[in-house]
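QUALITY CONTROL LOG
STEP: pairwise intake check
CHECKER ROLE: data steward
CRITERIA: each record must contain a sequence immediately followed by its structure tokens, with no blank fields

ENTRY 1 OF 2
RESULT FIELD BELOW
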Amino acid sequence: MKIRAVIPPFLPKDEIERRVKVLIPDIDIVEEPDAPGRFPLEEIEVLIMTTFNQAPAEVLEKMRSLKFVQVASTGWNTVDIDTCRRRGIMLSNIPVANSKTVAEHVILMTLALLRDARVLDAEMRRGEWPMLSGARDLAGKTFGIVGMGRIGREVAARLIPFEVATLYYDVVPVPASEEQLLGLTRVEFPELLQNADIVSLHLPLTPQTKGLLGEKELAMMKEGSVLINTARAELVDPEALHKHVGSGRIRPGLDVWPAEPPDFSDPLFKVPSSFYTPHLAGVTVEAQTRFLQETIKNVLRFVQGKEPLYRVDGLPAGK
């Protein structure tokens, strides 16, 4: 079976090729999905992607033998899913490799913002010795989780020792036994926004979730509340975000951006009470190793004639 893996140029191609070819000898590793390689495009049967490259409809159409696309990440929006559905191409992601990693990052951002960590660090680097700060405890706060999937649950589990009240909103309620275990209270979206001191977003980007937090929703949030977004930038209306962050009503912790890299002249980067990272919340050495392992395992399942795990194409099993 002819397999193509597309990896960005900053990843160690030789090392990846050495490790992968032991298990999958018929693999073609390139830097773009339609780049010249060992196999003609029309003969490729399996395509492995990351979130650093795009597989639009016009590229997928050139791969006339394509049967399975594996995205080595949680997100799969870089692959044209409509083409996959129309042609019966199976599409899987890897949702299990970095959920704990992202959850840790959410806790990091929350504590950094509550404790004014970035501001205090900057003052000391300027040779200053601040005597007071506006730091706040996490204990006793109300933490709102929007989207209770794998990552949302991992965040909730890590909040237990901090003695917070954890609210959540999801269209699908968590089973009562799990709500009790994690100390969760399900509320409607407006109630969560109005009562939470910290709001953390953990939703996929869909037509229904795009712009979920607009002017109306951000205005509901508490004065001085924290908004953490490690999911997708498009969940939040950018103009409304600029307004409420610029006024100081909301303290942002952002790992995702409408354009990546962003425009560093953006006024958001001048806001002192903020904490930003370059879409690396789910990227650690350990998480990347898990992504590689799970990707290889799932591709091998397909090669061996088994149903691949974590399908997101919405097709019935076996199609």
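ENTRY 2 OF 2
RESULT FIELD BELOW
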Amino acid sequence: MYVDCFGGPDKALDSFSDIQKAINFAMTSFLTTGGIRGGSEQIDKFQPRSFNMGLSKKAFEASGGFGNIHPGEDPDLSIRLWNLGFETKLFSSAFVYHKRRIDWNKFSIQVTKFGKARPILNSWYPKYSKITYFFPSAFIIGLFVSLLLLIFNQDLFFKMYLVYFVLIFIVASFQNISLKIGYLSLIAVWKQFFGYGKGFIISYMKVILLKQKPQEAFPELFF
């Protein structure tokens, strides 16, 4: 099947550090936002990621390639290609061993930028805004609400989060055959949701509610 823009998922090599394997789990698992980010065509229309993307000469010349936003350059390109009449396709076996951020601080900075970029893209392309993009923000707000409810002896909401994190630990430990990576995956998932959710909320308030120009609100995302 011919397609002008395509991509695939990412995997972790055995030689990756335990933190990198945990981050890979957080960024690709069906229990987190793996499918939402572009690892599945069942959740949303596939948006190839720049670390694993093929683009035809025709599509490149028509679109001009990547824009000047980063991160967010890959969904921006995908949407512009759709608007030009091109199709994107996921090839699930065309994976790459994606060596992600090597420490927690760099990972937190990266996912926070991801969160900031999404409302900007939503403001540019409201047709492609999805409720799923709000999930990380809703997740962290819900967690803090569940902690507040504990003060009033209401623990059902908190128990739901507890079950979720136990499930993360079990699945990550099983997939990596390592209890240590299972534990580190808990940290990675928390940092992923908190960083992205925080960035999304800040960007949503500035770009969507206050109508600030993205380049002025977040100059660090443009070049």
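INTAKE CHECK: passed for both entries
DESCRIPTIVE NOTE, ENTRY 2: Residues 136 and 197 are 5 Å apart (CA to CA).
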